[in-house]
Amino acid sequence: MLKKMMWALLGLVALALVVAGVGPLFLPKSYSVSRSLDLAAPVAKVYAAVGDFQKFNLWQPWIRYEPSASQTVSGKPFTVGARYAWEGKRIGSGSMTIREIKENALVVHDLEFTSPQASKAVSRFDMKDLGGATRITWTLTGESAYLGRWFGLMMDRMMGNDFESGLQNLKAFAEK
Questions:
Q1: What is the mean pLDDT of the chain?
Q2: d(CA 87, CA 95)
Q3: How far is CA 5 from CA 14, 17, 18, 22, 111, in A?
Q4: Which domains, from first to last, does the chain contain?
Q5: Residue 158 has pLDDT above 60, yes or no
Q6: In this predicted structure, what is the pLDDT of residue 150?
Q7: In the prediction, which pLDDT does 88 show?
């Protein structure tokens, strides 16, 4: 009986090592999180709230976790290169830089997280004019490091609620 228990324990340890060591080879390298919402607001008003980092904090979901976090906005709103940076004890630090922008249609950010763990991602806002209303789709894509691929499997669950909350905040802001 003791011998069987030892073999079972040894098997579990071996399985854990295989899962941690080789398992990520079989997991997707990239992840994607996307949420959409229809807003009863003209696309120009939605674009104004998304393309200007001065307005970003009026609806984005993460500042509520640490309102005292330092924030810096630089560059001209609605232009490639405009940048928003943050640093906090709870929310970590990083920056967003506008990579691509099309009036009333698209805003793409390069995201760089410097702490608690360095990583990069792309955040994208697609806006569709619905004739006085707007459908906005917020998408985050990125690639995970080898062991981080386990987190990639959970990314939609981890970030999805924040995206939904942010879009609801944006809806309330744009529909005023």
A1: 85
A2: 9
A3: 14, 18, 20, 25, 49
A4: 29-174 (3.30.530.20)
A5: yes
A6: 47
A7: 92
**pLDDT of 154:** 58
Distances (CA, A) of 141 to 3, 34, 120, 160: 48, 9, 9, 12
Give the pLDDT of residue 140. 93
- In this prediction the pTM is 0.80
The full 3-state SS of the chain, as one line of letters, equals CHHHHHHHHHHHHHHHHHHHHCHHHHCCCEEEEEEEEEECCCHHHHHHHHHCHHHHCCCCCHHHHCCCCEEEEECCCCCCCCEEEEEECCCEEEEEEEEEEECCCEEEEEEEEEECCCEEEEEEEEEEECCCCEEEEEEEEEECCCCCHHHHHHHHHHHHHHHHHHHHHHHHHHCC
Q: What is the rounded distance in angstroms from the CA atom of residue 91 to the CA atom of residue 134? A: 30
Give the tens place of pLDDT for each residue, 59-77: 999 888 899 999 999 999 9
